[in-house]
Amino acid sequence: MKYGDMNFETAEELIRAMRSLQALPRQGGTLMDLTCRNGELALAASLLHPFDLVIGIDEHPMRVQQGRRRLEILQKSMEGNQVQEVSDHFSWEVSLEEASSLDVSWDEASHIFLDLLGKSEEEVKELSEVAMELRPGT
């Protein structure tokens, strides 16, 4: 799936895999993308599954700004019915925030995406410790 300059193939594969494993509810839930970069995965997931809320977190301000611009363009397209085939699934509750994945609470998440590429061994250890505290099923 491609929309404008956004290629959603990776997100589409992840959502399909989660559905096949029955790891997604039919609708609802809160997705947190803790390394959202420019928001591509978070935005794609919001189009591909009817989450109640999608939160993208990244510690790089320019990436978050780029993601917010993409979100604004996408929302305007949706309001103008230019993307009719996915409008029934789109989660209007999408938030892209500048923060470290270790500095935000993961408690409200029902589903978490976290890319560990480029993370130091120490960061992976810290993130793993936080993940161990999540409620079962997250």
Could you describe the 3D structure shown?
The structure is a single chain. The chain is α/β, with parallel strands linked by helices. Helices cover 38% and strands 16% of the residues. It is built from four helices and six strands. The strands form two sheets. It has a four-stranded parallel beta sheet, covered by helices on one side. β3 (30-33), α2 (40-48) and β4 (53-58) form a beta-alpha-beta unit. The two termini are 26 Å apart. The model has no long low-confidence stretch (mean pLDDT 83).
Mean pLDDT: 83
> Which blocks of ≥5 consecutive residues have pLDDT under 50?
none
Give a short account of the largest sheet. Answer: 4 strands, parallel
Oligomer state equals single chain
Distance separating the two termini: 26 Å
Largest sheet: spatial strand order: 5-4-3-6
Rough shape?
globular
In terms of DSSP E residues, the strand content is 15-25%
* Coarse structural class: alpha/beta
Total number of helical segments? 4
> What is the H-and-E element order?
EEHEHEHEEH
Helix content: 25-40%
Number of strands: 6
Report the C-alpha radius of gyration, rounded. Answer: 15 Å
Annotate the secondary structure layout.
Elements: E1 2-3, E2 6-7, H1 9-20, E3 30-33, H2 40-48, E4 53-58, H3 61-79, E5 94-98, E6 111-113, H4 121-132
Parallel strand pairs: 3-4, 3-6, 4-5
Antiparallel strand pairs: 1-2
